Amino acid sequence: MDLNHRKLRILRAIVDEYILSGAPVGSKVLSQNPSFKLSSATIRNEMADLEDLGYLEQPHTSAGRVPSDKAYRLYVNNMMQRSNLTEDEIKVMSAYCQSRVKGLDAVMRETASVLSRITHYTALVMMPESTTNRLRHLQLVPLAEGYALVVVVTDAGVARDSVIRVPAEMGADELDRLSRLISQRYYNCRMIEVGDRMMKELGGELQDRGTFLTDLVETMETAPGANAHRIALSGANNMLDFPAYSDIDRARQLLAAVEKKDSMYQMLKNAGPFEISFRIGSELGQDIFSDCSLVTASYRIGSIPVGTMGVIGPTRMPYGKVVSVLDYMSKSLGSILTNLLEED
Amino acid sequence: MDLNHRKLRILRAIVDEYILSGAPVGSKVLSQNPSFKLSSATIRNEMADLEDLGYLEQPHTSAGRVPSDKAYRLYVNNMMQRSNLTEDEIKVMSAYCQSRVKGLDAVMRETASVLSRITHYTALVMMPESTTNRLRHLQLVPLAEGYALVVVVTDAGVARDSVIRVPAEMGADELDRLSRLISQRYYNCRMIEVGDRMMKELGGELQDRGTFLTDLVETMETAPGANAHRIALSGANNMLDFPAYSDIDRARQLLAAVEKKDSMYQMLKNAGPFEISFRIGSELGQDIFSDCSLVTASYRIGSIPVGTMGVIGPTRMPYGKVVSVLDYMSKSLGSILTNLLEED
DNA sequence: ATTAGCACTCATGGGAATGGAGTGCTAAAG
DNA sequence: CTTTAGCACTCCATTCCCATGAGTGCTAAT
Known about the structure:
Two copies of one chain form a homodimer. Chain A is α+β, with helices and mostly antiparallel strands.
């Protein structure tokens, strides 16, 4: 008993049908599909086999069959085909592409928003980060006495701000001089190297400034990609749309999980820099997401993958459609960023 | 038939009880309260009166009474008293106060997070904004040819970044020169004036740069408070905790409404710069929030109100507790910001 | 003015009955 | 050996009914 051609065809039909209807599919509806010239009894036998093989599950004795995670995995690997986008969808997405000239933050939020609106699922977009990030500019802006705002700009086109203490005797002039010095000397250096070099090369000059230099370096390093670990999220409430979460308690847990941006970030990160990748149900390794799948696509600046975007939906999502949308959006975002940030 | 002393006492007891239990309160439980030396029948009569006056409502004939919005309004105006904070709550809040030295963004998010964790409701915190915001620093960082990142820093301690086009012939040097010029010349100018002055004073020098100057000014002005219209939000999923939203459909609508940050911003804004203000149920003017109240508190930098924070919860929230928490948090945030940003 | 008493209303929750979808098995047909 | 028709069986979902109980409004007595 193995997966012969007929079993594959039946399995595929079941997955397609279940994705469409959301209800367990029985042998009868399949036998009515004119492309099968089989009776419901035959199909029942095959379905029993498929269940033994772990591809199908039965919610209860007298219900139809539901695909297992294993079945979805097989489906996305071998059976799925991308579906075409509708005109409406293309319209929304290309409108989004035109609306440039904004901060990176806004672009990311907008991307997530479009993704979730089109798919009706929850969208996650990781801020671009790369180990090859380079320094563009550093500015220390004096605030109250003893405090300064550190603004770091990298070639990822993002300003990140945080506040550090500075020795009281350092005035605006000196902070400005220092900003200029660092900006010039380390222009275009990789962020991962800047810290070390600063410690070595500026340590002498600043040795009587207490912990100022170490603080500054630490601040710069905790923002290695200038946006490390940040994600944009949109459409979390769409989760409530699908029936698996009609139980209010589970819904709450789910939303709470989604609100933890750290762990969402990890999920995206774990997906790796692949063009398209799938995590199905149990593969996500989190109980609360056992009925969900995460489909991700990485986006590139030039040819270097710098981030990942993804969609979380029910395991029975229309993968073909979602893949098409992600493909389109990741390329759009990539080209927007590339245009904006590429070395001249 | 007017609101004599006894009616007020009864009404107050009903509100207190209902806030505690969440179930319609009947005449019997009140008559068992030893502080009333009245039979349930007497109380029933009074309750009927209170219903006629619009302070109570009956979900159905044989249920107890539930306070109306009008009753809550009376309650918060005249009857409510602040409740003391528990040691745990104070511990959480003071821990939060100690964790300084972060970007403003992080402080705001943290504030919202603490608020929602303590109250178990949804917390909103408006970014500080003020018509008296002053420019600290402007930096134009060259990106790809023809693009530059604009970083605006105001005395609200925030960097805001967005991208604009620049004439191709303007090199890094010139952008830097211009940044320095603007930063110096307009240092400490009110943001609302900077735009006009720049147009007048720099128009000549930059007249052959196409729309560059207008673009720059517009960018700076759309960030008048450097953070205009931005809010931090936390604990939206707490909404699902309360029974009024156990209906999954309503829950979805609610979450969708909360996710619209614009309208949430407006709600905060409408509350005005009062120390504490309440919006109860229908007073919020949005159907979906008809079972919710918004309690807000403004926070100050020095003595100037620059923003508002608030908590959205069910109309039957423990107002006394929420007011205490908001009071504490708004003062904490105010002092954190004041320390950080006050003129030296 | 207050209260005891009583009839009445209505939401709630627990069976019991019903209908229907879908299965597994068996035996017959191809 | 494979396929199919037929049938008994299982289990869920829906509906209906009824008992229960909380709470009310009204009336008459205190």
